[in-house]
Amino acid sequence: MEEHKLAACGIDCNICGQYRVTVYQDIEGAKQLVPWFRSRGWIGENEDAEAVMKRAPLCGGCWSGVGFCSQNCMRPCCEEKGINNCGECSEFPCPKYIIWLDGLEHHQQALEHLQTIHAALFPQGS
User: Fold this and answer.
1) Of 24, 63, 103, 116, which residue is 20 to 30 A from 5 by alpha carbon distance?
2) What distance in Å separates the CA atoms of residue 3 and residue 89, rounded to the nearest whole number?
C-alpha cells in the first residue's frame, strides 16, 4: 500500500498523475495527463502518454524538491508562511486557492480534506 502524501494544496500525491509519472514511472498516470498536456500545448495532438513520460520528472511531491505541479502551485506560499499545507493557513481558502480549484474533481477532494484540517486548527468562535 502506498503511503499517503499530502501536497500543500491538499491533494493526496498518490492520485496525482504528475507525481505517479515521476515517482512510479506510471503509464496510467501519464494517460490521465494527456488531455491536460495537449490543452496547454506541452505535447502535440498526435502525441500520447509516452510523450508525457519523456517530460518527467514532473513532480516528486511538494516537499521532495523535484519539480512542482504548475505555476498555480501552493507550495511556494506554504513555504513562505512556514506551514505544511493550505489548511494550516488562517486565510484559507484564499483567492489563489479558489482559482486553483478550477472545477476539477480531485481539486474539490483536496479542498474538502483541507477544510477538515482548517476547522480543527481554527474552530469557529475560538
Assistant:
1) 103
2) 24
- pLDDT tens-digit profile of 38-90? 988 999 999 999 999 998 787 888 877 776 666 678 888 999 999 999 999 99
- Determine contact, residues 28/20, Cβ cutoff 8 Å: yes
| Mean local confidence (pLDDT), 111-123 | 93
3-state secondary structure of 67: strand
Neighbouring CB atoms inside 10 A of 74's CB total 26
CB atoms within 10 A of CB 108: 13
Contact between residue 112 and residue 8 where contact means Cβ atoms under 8 Å apart? no
Residue 107 to residue 116: CA distance in whole angstroms: 15
Residue identified by cell 516528486 is: 60
C-alpha cell at 60: 516528486
pTM: 0.76
In angstroms, rounded to a whole number, what is the distance separating the alpha carbons of residues 93 and 49? 33
